[in-house]
Amino acid sequence: MQTEAVIIDDISDKKSQNALKKAGQTIRNGGLVVFPTETVYGLGADATSVQAAEKIYKAKGRPSDNPLIIHIHEPALAEKYTYTTPMFYKIADAFMPGPITVIMKAKDIIPKTVTAGLDTVAVRCPLHPVARELIKKAGVPIAAPSANLSGSPSPTCFKYAYADMNERVDMIIDGGDCDIGLESTIVKIEEDESLTLLRPGAVTVEDLNMLCDDIKISDAVLSALKEGQTVLSPGMKYKHYAPKTPFSLLKGSLEKRFEYISSQNGRVAVICYDEEVSSFERIIPTELIFNFGKKDDLQKQAKLLFTLLRDVDKTEADAVFAALPDASGIGMALYNRMIRAAGHRIITLN
Ligand code: AMP
Ligand code: MG
Description:
Blueprint: E1 4-7, H1 14-28, E2 33-35, E3 42-46, H2 50-60, E4 69-71, H3 78-81, H4 86-95, E5 100-105, H5 112-115, E6 120-124, H6 129-138, E7 142-143, H7 158-165, E8 171-174, E9 185-189, E10 195-199, H8 205-209, E11 215-217, E12 247-251, H9 254-262, E13 268-272, H10 277-280, E14 289-291, H11 298-314, E15 319-323, H12 331-341, E16 346-348
């Protein structure tokens, strides 16, 4: 399949408007369009069409039991596709448009291919102007998982979306780097209007606590699933975000991590904080040191993580190490993605 790549900097100029019109038409005609959002790049298709949704699973190599998020450009449109509740509007008023996905009971208009057979559907209203304009122009809700091949880190810049999706989709829109860099927070609204956090993201548990003091955190968020344990969000059971380079997390002080990494054989890479670069430069060549921002700048680390994991793979290092982050605030999202990228390999250094 031939893929057309277009750059959109400013949605209001004529060239961009024409490109967005074409992209919207492509979606409406059952095609696939990769587009930027504030979280990660998405791989979009008409969420009301079985055939279009099937194309998404095929292009990504995604297992068919892992449901898709549908994207709308106004929260009120959720009425058309789901049975909304007062809690949905509380969340929408506080955080939409923005990096949050809400799971509610689906209406029949959404095909089972999109929900992977579940009776619920995940709804998100993105903030990115290109994403919103594309949904508006398409005139249909857009089903969109992250635009990576299944199992790889989500693309947070055009370069990596293109690397995975060229020749698999009709169009790819280059909208620059994603601001947040981690996928949306996913919450499920339960029958009693309490919330269950299925995936942490930039909207934090602390943020959600302002609306609801009854928030359960799904087991798969902060630990590995046990053999045979069922999971509320099917995507949580798959290996995710993993670089090809064996990745381990080290729990311990800089001194302990430094000692541990010094004792390793082979070509070793490290993802470390700005404050630590000069220490690691004593034992690791510069091209194998990946700068993760300042230790307390979790926002920057979130934005860099997936791109760094892909950059590491290009060095063909034998192993890569990073410090285990704290799991509070947006740190919970970082922690969740990093333990999964590391296949839960956490080494405690005493
Ligand atoms: P991605 O599209 O790659 O960001 O992944 C979407 C995530 O949303 C996956 O982890 C899915 O399992 C999850 N998801 C989508 N729809 C539902 C649903 N109806 N119930 C639970 N989880 C869902
Ligand atoms: Mg994904």
